[in-house]
Amino acid sequence: MTGEPILRLDGLVRDYVLPRRSLLRPAPRFRALHGVSLEVRAGESFGIVGESGCGKSTLARAVLALETPSAGTVEFMGEDLFALSASRLRGMRRHMQMVFQDPYGSLDPRHKVGRIVAEPLDMLEAGLGRRERRRRVAESLGRVRLNGSDADKYPHEFSGGQRQRIAIARALITHPRLIVADEPVSALDVSVQAQVLNLMSDLRRDQGLTYLFISHDLSVVRHVTDRVAVMYLGRIVEQGETAQVFAQPRHPYTRALLDAVPRPDPARFRHRHRVQGEAAATPSEPEGTAPAGGCPFAPRCPEATDRCRAEDPALEPRAGGRLAACHFA
Amino acid sequence: MALLEVEDLNVTIPTPRGTAHILSDVSFALERGECLGFAGESGCGKSITAMAVMGLLPTTAQATGRIRLDGRDLLAMDEAGLCAIRGRRVAMVFQEPMTALNPVKTIGFQVAEGPRLHLKLSKAEAGRRAVAMLRRVGLPPDRFSPDLYPYQLSGGQRQRVMIAAALACEPDILIADEPTTALDVTIQAQILDLISDVVQETGMALVMITHDLGVIAETAERMMVMYAGRIVESGPTAEVFRHMAHPYTRGLFAAIPGGPEEESRRLATIPGQVPEPIALPPGCAFAGRCARTEDDCRAAVPPAEPVGPGHRVRCLHPHVGAT
């Protein structure tokens, strides 16, 4: 089912320049991605989990070449996206599409569904005849189990789950290889969420799609991905087979994350060892001065030692084919 | 007498397309110190129930029935009477800590507002109480000055401020409407623990409204499941989880990823959609989506029948046995 790497990120760094606090000092920078490297194989569903501000959406935008990284490369289907000419890059965009979180905000309320779904064709496959466009729209809507006649309706006539299916139909219309789904079911109720997740699983099986599935929801990621990377403050702290990572997390942050999920089981022991504090992403000092060393999770980690505060652990292979960035994993 | 008694609460809102039935025959009682959970999906009426208790229904809404707080009917009360209760006897924590706080007032001012208004404390006394409350919710004054503004805090810290403000007048009932939905999972866990702890400390009653059955399992002793404006199942949380009797409750539970369907990689789904509140069917509102529907389901709304200790369900063909 899974094969050759289709997407390869190498040492991805993305800095944002923040507003100056003082005229006399250089503008502070915020490092959203701290050298992220990973490989996604064709046909696999790869999950990125983490909390707000961990860099997962920046990662998605970099993968889709919507955001130019400050350093590092993104290789998609063997091509370095940021070394391509604008027209070659546009050619590549046919093969990668995105599904967004908010099915209300991501569909233009003034356009009919047919036009919304056909929109990628205008940019990426211009010159298709009207009949062919209609055929492609109907085909795409059929794949997400909507009717061809729905093309003549407006988004407000659909429920949240149906809208998200329209968004998926729009992503499928160029026959992409890779779909980047950024929190695709977070805005949906649980019964509707299940319908959309099942649909996404079916599409992957039938169309051989590859997913980069980004979510803060651990149970959703556990359900739909083969492999997963856990991010914390712009770094991958743990990566491996989803089932193994969830069954035996090696990084204390992954453990804390899993432990924090409320389970629908009243018999479960209620007060667990909670991770305290919040992820403090302070803008780093201007370039040239090294940021304070140490593990980014150390301030919140129940197991942190002096070594953790002094030395930033590298993401290294651990037992069980796992990568983890912890001195004690 | 229970602290709060809601009896046959019906809320309708007239719309150009017909009357929308928002709440139908909602009845429940809340004892002093009890933690009661309301579960259900968007539009099931769980938030409107809270709004009705707070006297904050939209002006076009028409409510019938009784909402008694210590025997006094809130639905019959005038605005001045409600003002004396809101924030004093019944306080609320909302979902959106970003919008529920006033962005141009300091957090100290906002926490002190209730005590100044309701308890007639002086500015200095109310300020001291605000600091004490902020300290209690994990925002000690040495690191989180009461002179900070909401924009200087993270989402979790703002929700702590909301909780401090809600607790400041020592209310009898705290209503938490999706208090952690906008928060990250590690912060959610901290806030849920905080709410459980303060509820235990002060002995006030908690109404926890959430779409997340996991949150219910962790915070509520008794729970109600709502669907299309009705309470379809109610009972002690452990009992309801053990013997989910209503097909909707079971469907909701089975649709959660990570449940028993894990291995098959397919989630159980509930087919179809919730009926619109202007076009509720005459019988059970869930009949159109339910696998156990028979003809009698469509004829009349099923009564809430007991199926276990303290456990009632509005279903003519409920599941029996363990979940």
Q: Could you characterize what this model shows?
A:
The complex is a heterodimer of chains A (329) and B (323). Chain A has helices at residues 56-63, 86-93, 113-124, 130-143, 160-172, 190-207, 218-224, 242-247, 252-260, 306-310; strands at 5-17, 29-41, 45-49, 71-76, 79-80, 96-99, 178-182, 210-215, 227-232, 235-241, 316-318, 322-324. With 329 residues, chain A is an alpha/beta fold. In chain A, helix 4 (130-143) packs across helix 5 (160-172). Chain A is globular. The model of chain A is unreliable at 282-291 (pLDDT under 50). Chain B has 323 residues and is an alpha/beta fold. Chain B has a domain at 1-82 and 201-258 and 268-282 and 301-323: Rossmann fold, CATH 3.40.50.300. Chain B is built from 10 helices and 12 strands. In chain B, strands 6-7-8-3-9-10-12-11 form an 8-stranded mixed sheet, with helices on both faces. A 4-stranded antiparallel sheet of chain B has the order 2-1-4-5, with helices on one face. The radius of gyration of chain B is 21 Å and the shape is globular. Chain B starts with a strand and ends in a 10-residue tail after the last strand. The A-B interface holds A 51-52, 159-160, 189-195, 197-198, 201, 216-220, 222-224, 256-257, 259-268, 270-272, 274-276, 278 and B 41-42, 154-157, 184-190, 192-193, 196, 211-218, 237-238, 241, 251-253, 255-259, 262, 265-270, 273.
Please give the structural blueprint.
The complex is a heterodimer of chains A (about 325) and B (about 325).
Chain A: E1 5-17, E2 29-41, E3 45-49, H1 56-63, E4 71-76, E5 79-80, H2 86-93, E6 96-99, H3 113-124, H4 130-143, H5 160-172, E7 178-182, H6 190-207, E8 210-215, H7 218-224, E9 227-232, E10 235-241, H8 242-247, H9 252-260, H10 306-310, E11 316-318, E12 322-324
Parallel strand pairs in A: 3-8, 3-9, 6-7, 7-8
Antiparallel strand pairs in A: 1-2, 1-4, 4-5, 9-10, 10-12, 11-12
Chain B: E1 4-15, E2 18-30, E3 35-39, H1 46-54, E4 62-69, E5 72-73, H2 79-85, E6 90-93, H3 97-100, H4 107-118, H5 123-136, H6 155-167, E7 173-177, H7 185-202, E8 205-210, H8 213-219, E9 222-227, E10 230-236, H9 237-242, H10 247-254, E11 305-308, E12 311-313
Parallel strand pairs in B: 3-8, 3-9, 6-7, 7-8
Antiparallel strand pairs in B: 1-2, 1-4, 4-5, 9-10, 10-12, 11-12
Helix pairs in contact in B: 4-5, 4-6, 5-6, 6-7
